[in-house]
Amino acid sequence: MARQRGGYNFQVNKLEAFGYIVAQASRGDITFPTSVNAVLRLQQALDDPDCPLDEAIRLVLAEPQLAARTVALANSAAFSGGGASVTNVRAAVTRMGYRRLQALVASLVVRQFGSRIKDPGLRAKAEQLWEHTTHVAALAWSLARHVTGVNPDTALFAGIIHEVGGFYLLSRADEFPGLLDDDPEKWGELCEDVVSLEVLKKLAVPATVADAIGALRRAWINMPPSTLLDTLLLANGYAPVVSPLGAALPAMAEHADSALDFVIDEDLLDMIRAEALETCKAMGGPLLV
């Protein structure tokens, strides 16, 4: 017997299920876990550059995962600048600054989309997607610093949220058995693209970042790479863990062993990978809370 909810038959073919999710997203009918809504309040506070430091520290301490990751990332090589280790949130927030702290808040938002996933297979996909996300974000930060010249903090933030549509889709897939099984027609990718734009809009992500994320699946790397979009494409191409959703981005195949070799030599790439790996480890931790 097919399940019914709100007059809708949920035991349907995948195309209809994807269409249902897209229609909801297009209406702005996107529901976040309660934990995400709490973190969004922290994000809104940090959006105010005049937010008092003591208030920011209080908000960070209210989220234990965020507090731990803030201290860990502040002590990583990319952010410590060779300085002494910090051992408390006040010192970590002072070192990181609000912009980098906002990137960590975004990571908490992304991870907590997994909190409602029950199916073990979907939870495994969410874990892999988070691994992919942390590698892309860390690589984007390092590539921005050493190759493309875009703002590294913006690149870090964009890397963290670039798969937010995929996380949302995973969080909904429990309702539609088989939704994310083999998809030769790539309806899942189309659905993820639409949902991503709506989730980014609901999260009030700046247009420059949202536009770069929205263009990822259809874009190619400029030579020399110099934009946020280029940075994300490179980071995806060099990420050692692939996304479990959809096909790999095409841009790296076009330039592998050719033009990119003149922009990023082997020594530079090794340095970027080593720096990014440490940052990635500092950003890691439990995905599903």
Automatic annotation (TrEMBL):
<feature type="domain" description="HDOD">
    <location>
        <begin position="32"/>
        <end position="219"/>
    </location>
</feature>
<dbReference type="InterPro" id="IPR003607">
    <property type="entry name" value="HD/PDEase_dom"/>
</dbReference>
<dbReference type="InterPro" id="IPR052340">
    <property type="entry name" value="RNase_Y/CdgJ"/>
</dbReference>
<protein>
    <submittedName>
        <fullName>HDOD domain-containing protein</fullName>
    </submittedName>
</protein>
<dbReference type="InterPro" id="IPR013976">
    <property type="entry name" value="HDOD"/>
</dbReference>
<dbReference type="Pfam" id="PF08668">
    <property type="entry name" value="HDOD"/>
</dbReference>
